[in-house]
Automatic annotation (TrEMBL):
Name of the encoding gene: slc22a21
Biological source species: Sinocyclocheilus anshuiensis
Broad class of the protein's primary localization: membrane
Domain Major facilitator superfamily (MFS) profile: 92-517
Subcellular localization, as worded in the UniProt entry: Endomembrane system
GO BP of this protein: monoatomic ion transport
InterPro entries reported for this sequence: MFS_dom (IPR020846), MFS_sugar_transport-like (IPR005828), MFS_trans_sf (IPR036259), Sugar_transporter_CS (IPR005829)
Family: Belongs to the major facilitator (TC 2.A.1) superfamily. Organic cation transporter (TC 2.A.1.19) family.
TM stretches of this protein: 23-44, 176-193, 199-221, 233-256, 262-281, 337-355, 375-397, 404-423, 429-452, 464-486, 492-512
MF annotations from Gene Ontology: ATP binding; quaternary ammonium group transmembrane transporter activity
Keyword annotations: ATP-binding, Glycoprotein, Ion transport, Membrane, Nucleotide-binding, Transmembrane, Transmembrane helix, Transport
Topological relation to the membrane, as annotated: Multi-pass membrane protein
Source organism, top-level taxon: Eukaryota
Protein name: Solute carrier family 22 member 4-like
A Pfam family this chain is assigned to: Sugar_tr
Amino acid sequence: MISPDYDDSTAFLGDWGPFQRTVFALLCLSMIPNGFTGLSMVFMGDTPAHRCLIPAALNITDEWRNASIPLEEDEENRDSRFSKCSRHRMDVVKNYSDRGLLPWVDVNVSNIPQEGCLDGWEYDTGTYISTIVSEWDLVCSDNWRAPLTTSLFFCGVLTGSVISGQMSDRFGRKKVLFVTMGIQTVFTFIQVFSPSWLIFCLLFFIVGMGQISNYVSGFVLGMEIFSPSIRDIYSTLGVCLFFSIGYMMLPLAAYFLRDWRMLLLVFTIPGIFCMLLWWFIPESPRWLLSQGRVVEAEAILRKAAQMNGVNAPDVIFPLNQTRENAGRLRTYSLCDLVKSSNVCCITVLLCLVWFSVSVGYCALSLNTSSLHGNIYLNCFLSAAVEVPALIMAWLMLRRWPRRLCLSSTLSLGGLVLLFIQLIPQHMNYVAFSLVMLGKFGLSAAFSILYPATAELYPTVLRNTALGACSMASRVGSILAPYFIYLGGYYRSLPYILIGSVNILSGLLSILLPESLGSPLPETISHMQTVAGVNFIKEDDDEKYSLTKKFSVTKTRC
């Protein structure tokens, strides 16, 4: 095992020298492409206003062309609108037009039989030149394909979570970070030339695999390089803030690039530049030490000391420590997250919390096109509200126990969403404000979850654990588009469900161990226990048994 005093062994570097500042800035910059890639479907997959196409070759009068689309009631606005999926039978309309009859004067148009959009659809180009919906007609009987596209992206994210965690723990944080960054960039570029919806979805799945893998690997790399005083700001005002910056760039780019292919093409440019960071971002010395590669770990730390203008000790890691590491090396996997009762309880609780936060965050982010107002402004505000949320999360993490931070932000986000059902339909701006406040709370909770999770697991399992939690999170992301579509049955239903599950998660998060002020654990034996549960260590193989059911015990905050 690795000494729990790793931070003490590397304290000679200081907290915030040129080395730390450089790595901090470069890792944060590498997060920007994830912000616009993950939520690009807000614009690429939006459904423009549409109605059945009336072919110009049909040669009917303008009066009959305007009357060919039946009116239907808009239940939300209590008004009439043109039907999106049906038209009056064109053979009948053509006959009336050729005979010189006028609609609603000589003919009761409502009595003309209807048919589907046999010639396709025409789309409003006032907001978009092209989306994947308008290009491949993902409307009416095929409208299920649009949310499925988003879900398939998050299926890729889920798959990446399964693979990348173990790959990163086995092959290193840096290698996985840049390999998956390359996958994300290359396949985003290939997506531009997608000839069909099916090919687009397949490529989008692979992009999702790369997106989450490089995000989690970059996050863990920073958490293991920086000292405890820098980890909180890195996890909130670092990676999460730069993700939000990428998110804010999305509506700005989409406003000027109304064609989805051009939008995707522009998204590949930052990824190309980020690939060049390979020569400037080091591997995690903590991970190298966990693999017994002490010489490489010390070489990185000595170079860091040189950058910071300090002298490294002759021996950074004691010989007895490195021998102990070499004698106890073994491979860890997802199975180790459930082998002991304590680790299993922590993992289950965290997976439930990650699932609920992800459902809420993704649903609220993807739903901006359905909110009242301008879609570009709505999306920008949805991204901008994350900035004060991240600042608040950082301030909370500096002083408050992790459990209290999680519980309060989850409860805030869930509670305000439950109030939306009480807002009259005409008070759109009040409902919009509550949605943004809910997004504020869930964004803060999401940024707190990463450091809270990383601090609970040991180095040998940290990336695997984050990958597992990310898997649970992505199950929520996969379901998020369908939470949105429940609003078609009852306007407030998505908010009721999202609010309820996040309030429940806020209560469950109180049971998690508290990591404030504790060093990062290096092995499973260093992990803390679930609040209110007694575990007895059985033997030196780090196995635990549950001896008491949720007894009332005093826990440390």
